[in-house]
Amino acid sequence: MIRTALFLWLALQTISPEATQHLNAGRLAESQQRIDLAVTEYRKVTELEPGFAEGFVNLGQALMEQHDYAAASDPLKRALELDSSLVPAHQLLGYALLAQGYAAEAIPHLSRVHEQGALGIAQVETGQFGEAITNLQAALQKRPNDPDLLYYLGRAGGLLSKQSIDTLLAAYPDSARAHQSMAENYFVLRQMADAEKQYLAALQLRPDTPNVHLELGQVYAMTSRWPQAEEQYRAETKLQPGNAEAAYRLGNTLLQQGKAHEACVELQRSNQLQPQMPETLYALGKASALGHDDVAAEQAWSQQLKVEKDGPLAAQAHFALAGLYRKQGKAAKAEEQMREFQKLQGAAGQSQERQ
Amino acid sequence: MLIAAASAVGTALLEVKLPRGIDFILQNSPTPQKYLIETMPGGVALLDYNNDGLLDVFLVNGGHIDSPMQTPENFDRHDPRYWNRLYRQNRDGSFVDVTAEAGLANAGDGNYGMGVAVGDYDNDGYPDLYVTSYGKNILYRDNGDGTFTDVTAKAGVAGGGWSVSAGFFDYDNDGKLDLFVTRYMEWDTKDSKDCGGNYHTYCPPGEFPRTTNILYHNRGDGTFEDVSERSGIAAKKGHGLGVAFADYNGDGLTDIYVANDGMQQYLFRNNGNGSFKEVGMEAGAALNVDGGPLSGMGVVFQDYDNDGRPDVIVTTLPRQTYAVFHNDGDGTFSDHGLQTGVTMLSGVTSGWGVGLEDFDNDGQKDLFVAQGHVLDNVEKIDPSLHYLQPTLLALYHNGRFERIDPGTEALVAGRGAAFGDLNNDGWIDVVTTVVGDHPQVFMNRAGTAAHWLTITLRGTRSNRDGLGARVQVNGQTRFATTAGSYESASDKRLHFGLGTMKTAKVEVLWPSGSRQILNDVAADQFLEIREPERP
After folding, report:
1. Which of A187, A191, A252, A256 to mutate to test the interface with B (most CBs of B within 10 A)?
2. Euclidean distance between CA atoms B107 and B118, whole angstroms
3. Are B350 and B297 in contact (CB under 8 A)?
4. Cα–Cα distance between B150 and B129 in angstroms, integer?
5. Residue from the list A190, A223, A327 with its beta carbon closest to the beta carbon of B334
6. In a 10 Å sphere around its CB, with 0-12 CB exposed, 13-18 middle and 19+ buried, how is residue A101 labelled?
7. ipTM of the complex model
8. pTM for the whole thing?
9. Nearest by CB to B291, which of A192, A223, A319?
10. Residue pLDDT, tens place only, A81-140
């Protein structure tokens, strides 16, 4: 709704009393949500005052309130023919065009009035993903939880990614990155044999490409080939000794193989590189317990619960602590942890039921 | 195909070959409706029904399913293609189909077959059969003359609904075998549904209501009493599939472990007064190491680490890994999947029939699992998983199970598994069932590299087969049972590998409470131990 006292005052200054009467009637009807009547009154204004740009803006706006964007476009265009500086006309026409799928035509109007949210959406639709991301992020600063903006930002990011990958695959189909990209697609589709093949091809071309060993390790982990996963994660941690995720994944893989001490070393290293990650702390607790270091296990899980009190991982930590205390003969503490576990499990169950 | 697999002491050498005479095909009748029963059969039993000293094979069949199924349900079990089958073993290792002459043909048109239990419920020296079904279950009494009689009505053990696994055991140590039956869910073909959207898959158990298991008490006069309510068993509804028995807390009473699908597992502690208390959660044997539910299917309740206490291994779906509940000796269990290497072995497989047997006779129990996914089109949903899977054989050495070649590279939809020494050579063999296919027979060809001892219990005050007895041989422990695995019944004889030992010390703790010790027992023999008639 574009209404300002100034706009109204200006309008009243320049048109005939009869037109003013219809303009006021239109305003009143609009305020009473009698949009059909408002359209009729505004149309009379444009008939009585065909050179009165604001009248066409009002008519266009009322039509937009009826979601008749096609009908709204003509009076708004006419308004801009009469006065190309009319900000509300640009804004409304930009929205009207965008709503009808004329994103490219909407962009100049939205750009003119710095309507960054709608502009970003129009840019997504026209394939200008980089610009779209900039505008959508700016719009989100003002409206952080707007679902449309969040959706389009995500879409823009995905499409920009796809665009880049398509370019990569077209220009350098035999490059290590192209193989890596194809491998990632196969991994998402859970086509592990194809993913493995592409990752290995990538590594043959560039053995030192960051993250490829890590991702190939995940292929092996998903298919329970833990020694191969360990080999890849070790290669990644050698390449990127500062990568906390690589250390975590190596530690977890060692844990899966029952190598408690080695797992603890890597998980502690990961925890130092990126402290307070609940996943790392939980795995560290398990590795410590596996290595019969109950004190370290208790510390890791307790620390994890300080970082994250709710959610599935917190439930797991409570369950693990319950088991630990039970083995230590601390029945009351074990029961307390089991209660917390069951409370979180119950919450998760209710959440699932709601879904 | 003959594939050797080296091990530390003995050498497990399995040969997979269908013996002459066994032509059974497990008919599950898959339909576009994806009736859940289609993917759940079937059981296998190894028993010596005619007491000729050779193990015979009984195989449970599914049935024919119309697409869609009409009401009343009719599975055409009168058609020989859908009969359960009894194969008698000949002296030359071949088999002959004796189903019809034994009186086991046509298991009832209203019954879609699932599993089998074996036990001498009337203590006459001949093993009786209990066949579970979606529909009604059947108790076949072994007449001792090569025939069986359907005594279900008189015995009062027809059950109803959807029964899966069953087992005979003596929960009150009165010398008469009682009967436990797992039931899966409240379900019928009329109210069935499929899941998986466009892919049309079998639904997970959570889509259907839980149901109760059944406990029958043997009155000793050929009849049973349903004591499910009175005993507390019926107080816990679940999605029961596998069942196994052992005395986990050393109080002389047999306890029950039920593998539930898609939820917590149940451990029914025997209170000794005819009632049970479900203690799975407090005993730490209900959930996986991360507190998650398990899709429990098969279960074995034996001592894998020779500490004298029965542990539990539960087979599950992929991404869960099989659970190894180690009995810590204080009434509680710890998940030892990581320590034992079982986690590594089971990340992407679905396990059903399972056993802990000493395949290489080195004195350590090894792990055998029949595998195959529950969904016959799982590849469409997750291409990293497979319906047909290899069989798992893992030898236990130095505290870990290590995979070895099971003797075949065949990928199958494995289900039931029964264990026993088919050719009486002192080495454990296996028969597994395969959905839609012939069974697999794994003959152990390891030869003479290690010694062994196979014990037959002859109860006098205890039940005749001594089921429930704890038998210790040179530091190893087995709990006498034919139950466990999935829908299957194994050889009642207790097999022990002795490694390099040529003699053994044998200690039997009978269900009656009497303890019997035999010293310097020669290795490499089949030994019958008779329970002292007086304490």
Report:
1. A256
2. 16
3. yes
4. 9
5. A327
6. exposed
7. 0.91
8. 0.87
9. A319
10. 999 999 999 999 999 999 999 999 999 999 999 999 999 999 999 999 999 999 999 999
